[in-house]
Inverse folding.
């Protein structure tokens, strides 16, 4: 029997469900295990069955830490008050629209009248930005929400939809047998990428300790596998104001929870 471990504190981290839960857990667990080993805090992985359920959990403050999209951070920074810790180093997020490699669709105008797959209504770069772009160009389309980025890519690859919304990072992390059959039709301008943030109840001492550990990852060759597992090159320190480019869009899709 393994020895009983006494943790100095126990926390949860919620990860936005861009992929299947098993895939997300495999990507994040090495980092969470490292945090446990070096800080003595227990970090329990959590996700949700889909993005709207994840949003409900953020609104209720269920996660002590969370990895969330830029729009989620803007909303849930206001209430219940999640505070930015780090974001992916030297990386902006870009929305994309993908089609099948063999598709005759060559321009956004070719999407007029099509039904397009998206992960969820409030998926920032994968849904909000592509849909806004299509609308400003008077390109009529019908959205269908399929719960995750992986589902978007799989549905387009299998021909169930002629196009779908996603982001560069999740496309690169999708299975090769799906990715190799897809073509990026369009990509958006860059925006500040996903946040790793803490709930206000997390003590500052622990928040700073975990932030420092994540910032140190890119400095150690021995820890590079942890980052490559996440398809990231490293983290950089973040502040709440880093997402002012998203705030400037004045998106109003999610209600801010009452404090």
């Amino acid at each position: 029997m393994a020895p009983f471990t006494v943790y100095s504190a126990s926390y949860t981290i919620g990860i936005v469900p861009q992929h299947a839960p098993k895939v997300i857990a495999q990507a994040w667990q090495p980092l969470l295990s490292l945090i446990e080993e070096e800080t003595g805090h227990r970090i329990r992985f959590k996700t949700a069955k889909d993005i709207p359920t994840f949003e409900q959990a953020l609104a209720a403050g269920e996660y002590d830490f969370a990895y969330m999209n830029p729009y989620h951070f803007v909303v849930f920074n206001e209430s219940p008050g999640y505070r930015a810790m780090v974001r992916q180093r030297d990386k902006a997020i870009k929305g994309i629209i993908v089609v099948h490699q063999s598709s005759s669709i060559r321009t956004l105008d070719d999407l007029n009248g099509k039904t397009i797959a998206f992960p969820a209504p409030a998926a920032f770069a994968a849904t909000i930005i592509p849909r806004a772009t299509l609308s400003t160009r008077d390109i009529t389309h019908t959205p269908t929400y399929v719960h995750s980025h992986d589902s978007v890519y799989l549905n387009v690859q299998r021909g169930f939809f002629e196009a779908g919304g996603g982001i560069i990072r999740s496309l690169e992390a999708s299975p090769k047998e799906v990715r190799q059959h897809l073509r990026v039709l369009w990509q958006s301008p860059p925006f500040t990428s996903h946040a790793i943030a803490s709930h206000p109840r997390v003590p500052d001492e622990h928040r700073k300790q975990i932030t420092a550990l994540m910032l140190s990852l890119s400095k150690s060759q021995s820890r590079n596998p942890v980052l490559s597992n996440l398809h990231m090159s490293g983290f950089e320190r973040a502040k709440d104001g880093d997402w002012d480019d998203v705030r400037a869009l004045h998106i109003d899709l999610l209600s801010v929870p009452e404090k």
Q: What stands out?
A: The mean pLDDT is 92. The first strand starts at residue 9 and ends at 15.
